[in-house]
Design brief:
Length: about 375
Amino acid sequence: MSDAPTARDYMGQLVNDAVAKRLDELNKKESKDKVIDRRENASSDDKALTRLFFEAVLSANPMKIAEANEKIEKDYAAKERKGYIEKAQAEGTIGSGTSGGILVPTTVADSIVSKMVYISPLRQISTVINDMPAQLQLPSENTLATAYWVSEGSAGTDSGEVFDPNLLTPWKMICLDSFTSEVIADAATNPSIQNYVEQRFALAMGLLENAAFTSGSGSGQPFGFRSSAITPNTVAQVGDVLTYSDVVRLKYSLKTAYRQTAVYVTSSAGTQALENVKDNYGRPIWREGLAEGQPNTLLGRPIYVVDEVPSNLGTGSNATEVWYGVFNNYFIGDRGSLRIDYGTNGTDFANDKISLRMAKRTAGRPVIGEGFSSLTGVLSAS
């Protein structure tokens, strides 16, 4: 009897897809609304602090800067006591009033970080530690916790998880941007202008983070999942055309336990190759996301496009990689709170502009190398 899919099979799949699509649309709308409403639902105190923040930056008046810092620091401390923010984030404000800059209000900082999450697929699929200590020791590469059997009443061997010097260390990221005085003045009272300022910082820092989270060396920047921090499983494309069997070999290069939560990551060049691959029944293995913002899927698992994965590899400089792994074993650590320094840079004075320099401390490192696999030499699809 033939195993080929019937018309009824296809019709049933279409119905299931339609139902799943509607559910995902509703879930996505709810999530998106929560982000959009964050500023609209801000308290009057938060709005007043935001206005004070932009007015202080515009004034460049040390007394007004000190006043803004004092009030923003008190707001951080109050929100930490109420559990609205992490303790480490609040502690990052200590002494900030004398450091020459101005602390970013929690409402503005949260909005910038939430935008970075949307910009960075890796922040969506990794383990993010918001209240990271100065350094955090992570499990050693390729080593899981040890499990063993003991007889009833016998003491267990205290082996546990093996550790080595795999430290999650935060590095400082600086983002410099210039705005006209009018933009800063309008941002004090106009949420749309505030969103514009936030978006510029979020985009620049998000792209810089993506590059480091992908291929960072760990020296002066986070370790990337493609770095020497782990030794992943590797399989290579066979021949000059990407085939179904290549992707299946990638999938099964991970152990069963890892495949349950693994996701795919590749570049835009990789997605173009994958979109044309069909299974043994002639069906595409690539499925479009069921709603805006939802990930596409490959062989039933989510796939994320990260263009920082190189697409100029190989002898012909036209190859890329497809990764399949447990990306919650990539750790991102955010240390302290956002700050902005202000001043003039280059032609700012002549053009009536203000340069803002935002500082953010971030760490990144993958662990458990056997939970990651890469398909290399991906050139093109049939």
